[in-house]
Amino acid sequence: MSITSPVSNTSAPTVKGPHGTQPEIDTKSLSPNLSPTLSLSPTLSRAELRKQIRLARRSLSTEVQTKASLAAGQRMLEKLSALKAQHVALYLTHDGELATAPLIEALWQQGIQTYLPRLHPFNAGQLLFLHYHADSVMLPNQFGILEPRLDVRNVISVEQLDVVITPLVAFDIKGNRMGMGGGYYDRTLANWHSKGRPLPMGYAHDCQQVPSLPCEHWDVPLPTIITPSRVWEF
Description:
Layout: E1 14-15, E2 22-23, H1 46-58, H2 62-83, E3 87-89, H3 101-109, E4 113-119, E5 127-132, E6 138-140, E7 146-148, E8 155-156, E9 163-166, E10 170-172, E11 177-178, H4 184-188, H5 192-195, E12 199-203, E13 209-210, E14 224-226, E15 231-233
Parallel strand pairs: 3-4, 3-9, 9-12, 10-13, 12-14
Antiparallel strand pairs: 1-2, 4-5, 5-8, 6-7, 10-11, 14-15
């Protein structure tokens, strides 16, 4: 199974899905140098670091974004296949993040169940994960991010997930992750190591990698991070 492109290409075979017509692309032909790492001052504050990296990923061209999503998606698909994952949580792209639509389409074609986070309606700062499928009703949350409409029949506990693919703003060469600052994924994944699941995996552009991140005691490092150019294992 190969990842498919979200851009139009009438000469390529296509598959239909809720993310549009997806022409198949030979990802082996894609260049791994899709979004070179940034040179940033080590004295930047967390807020300034977030600002600079978010700007960098939003500045990537449509062509680079597309190629990056295909290359990283193929790497992620191969990793999930090796893990025999059947219940995978991930996210919908926002603010220049690495696009997940091609990966989601490929997972559906393989019969793998996918889930999206939504803000918990009662417990502030917590996430719920709901089954995501072609007919899921999506609504914007307080941050303008689409999330599944709450339906208890679609809720899955975190412990039932095999893998949680996390969005991130930045990561370093030790696997430390910097998010948007809300701590949602840090709280969700706080006990994953002691329980052995779900396995957290980062998903990011290469330009989001920095040599070192300032860390707090509650920050949860990631054992695996996948970018268009490589699979990082820590």
